[in-house]
Amino acid sequence: MHRTYLTDYLLKVRQDPFTLGVASGDPEPDSVVLWTRLTGVPELPLSVPWQLSADPAGARVLREGVADALPEWGHSVHVEVEDLEPSTEYYFRFRHGRHLSLTGRTRTTPHPVALEPLRLAVTSGDALPSAADLVLCLGEHRPSGPVREQRERAMARLTPAAQLARASAPQVCTWGPGELSGEWVAACRAYYEHQPLRAASRPDGGRMPIYRSLRWGRLLALRLVDTQQYRQTGSLLGAGQERWLAGELGRRRPLWDVVAGHGSVAELTGERLGALWRRARVESPLVLRGGPGPAGTRQVAGAPELAAGVAGSLLCEIDERLWRARFPGPGGPGNLAFPRQCEATALSEGSPSSA
């Protein structure tokens, strides 16, 4: 009976179930996550065919399969595609019934020993990213309310331009307080359902491990911290996450070592972070921050901090010598450049130069 109903439903379905678009995320040298979420479908387990190709038209199919879209996870789809080539561009799409999704573009990160430049778009809130190799989403700082309904309304308002921007490059994301208001377990589930996250970040009751690290070859290491879930007296990150961060900072040295998260100036870039950098002898640290405060840059804890603001964006062009940051819009700091330093202490003595 269930199989007969589904067959009939797939033949007759008329409403586009891909109104929330597609996205990809958490890229590695040999894998990436593909995401979509069905809307307007029955409360039943559904199957969603997916396809990864070497060209936008889908003529050269490299991988394909069928993913589960379960009602208990809001019919979200998270496909972790493995055995890919480093530094390679791919295109992907989903199908449900006679409907095809928007075609998304993604890419893998460079080989761990490769030295490749990076074009990094940083966003906070609902700001749209610039065209980039990788998009860093630093969470939202919005009023409280019913979390699931609030996020679904926000996603439903995605314009074609916003959907294209979200589909155009892989993203790594973390949350802000606005995404976690209301009941905690429901907020975690809603966040997972709407983001291209790996199974390792899937909520388990009231726990959702979201802090993680991403490397862009040997050019850059991005430490994405969780500033909402582990707060303790005297510590924004909590003892366990601080130990993880200290271990990450002590690993093989990238040319740029970046900590990114959502929080106020005092919370995210306090003296505790500077102490971790000094203890690990990090040579070229940098902070990317979303949340309260204006967009711009300043020196904190012996390193530059680039802030996207509550709902802003910036574009970073990074190579082995220089970190260039472009702040769009009137009244902002404009274009800035930071040279890579040999020691973190030397960085605090200089100031960013205009680019």
- N-to-C SSE series? HEEEEEEEEEEHHEHEEHEHHEEEEEEHE
Number of helices: 8
Strand order of the largest sheet: 11-10-9-18-19-20-21
Q: Sheet with the most strands? A: 7 strands, mixed
Share of residues in strands: 25-35%
Q: What is the general shape?
A: globular
Structural class: alpha+beta
* Overall average pLDDT: 85
- Low-pLDDT segments: 342-355
Helix content: 10-25%
From the alpha carbons, calculate the radius of gyration and give it in angstroms: 20 Å
**Strands, count:** 21
Distance between the termini: 66 Å
Description:
The chain contains eight helices and 21 strands. It is an alpha+beta fold and 355 residues long. A seven-stranded mixed sheet has the order 11-10-9-18-19-20-21, with no helix packed on it. The chain has a six-stranded mixed sheet with strand order 12-13-14-15-17-16. Helix 5 packs parallel to helix 7. The longest helix has 11 residues.
